[in-house]
């Protein structure tokens, strides 16, 4: 159930969730990433980022703790549109595999 398009390793990974931490410089953007599982994108610091779907619709996060939700298998990119380095956390909910 690995995502596509994300270029960093997870900070935390277990059967219930996978979490990534990104630091984006002003103007920096990720490529389009797609997670197999539902995903929350959270602004973890001061700053302003846009979470944009491939169809161009975007959600602005402008306060620490602001978040956007992406359903499973839907792409998005993140862009720092502010003037400071900001931290973004991506938490992907996973479904534990029955044994």
What would your notes on this structure say?
- The protein is mostly beta strands.
- Helices cover 0% and strands 43% of the residues.
- The chain has a 5-stranded antiparallel beta sheet, with no helix packed on it. Strands 3-8-5-6 form a 4-stranded antiparallel beta sheet, with no helix packed on it.
- The chain is globular and about 40 Å long.
Report the count of strand segments.
9
Characterize the overall form: globular
Largest β sheet strand count, sense and barrel closure:
5 strands, antiparallel
Give the termini distance in whole angstroms. 17 Å
Helical proportion, percent range = under 10%
SSE inventory with pairings:
Elements: E1 12-13, E2 17-24, E3 33-34, E4 39-43, E5 49-52, E6 58-61, E7 67-70, E8 75-80, E9 86-93
Which properties best describe this structure?
mainly beta; 99 residues; five-stranded antiparallel β-sheet; globular; single chain; four-stranded antiparallel β-sheet
Summarize this entry quickly:
The protein is an all-beta fold and 99 residues long. It has strands spanning 12-13, 17-24, 33-34, 39-43, 49-52, 58-61, 67-70, 75-80, 86-93. It has a five-stranded antiparallel β-sheet, with no helix packed on it. Strands 3-8-5-6 form a four-stranded antiparallel β-sheet, with no helix packed on it.
